[in-house]
Amino acid sequence: MNLKNQAMAGSLESSDVLVSVSPLEGEVQVEIQSVVYEQFGKELEETVLDVLKQFNVNNVKIMLNDRGALECTVRARVETALKRAGLEGEKC
């Protein structure tokens, strides 16, 4: 599925993550800024890619600005941003 628009979810508060998604032709691009990147950067990226796979999204630029969010929060924010962006081909 492809995204229709740009969208955001989350905040820059402590223990949260601000997620921004936008359509990108032909690839998946993930950018992560995190206060705990050295310890959990790989896990953050794996979580994002897992959610994208779950929603079958292949053409997206996704940016995370993480302030120490738990995995469940990251998943929820990515999912919310994707739904706000409008998934083409999504069945209601």
What structural class do helix, strand and pairing data support?
Answer: alpha+beta
Number of helices: 2
Q: How many beta-strand segments?
A: 6
Strand content: 25-35%
Mean pLDDT level: 93
Q: Gyration radius, to the nearest Å?
A: 12 Å
Largest sheet: 4 strands, mixed
Number of domains: 1
Shape designation: globular
Question: How would you explain this protein's 3D organization?
Answer:
- The chain is of the alpha+beta class and 92 residues long.
- The protein has a single domain, classed as Ribosomal Protein S5, domain 2.
- It has 2 helices and 6 strands, in the order E-E-E-E-H-E-H-E.
- It has helices spanning 37-54, 71-85, and strands at residues 2-3, 7-9, 17-23, 28-34, 60-66, 87-88.
- The protein has a 4-stranded mixed sheet. It has a two-stranded antiparallel ribbon with strand order 1-6.
- Strand 4, helix 1 and strand 5 form a beta-alpha-beta unit.
- Helix 1 (37-54) packs across helix 2.
- The longest helix is centred in the middle third of the chain and has 18 residues, at 37-54.
- It is globular.
- The model has no long low-confidence stretch (mean pLDDT 93).
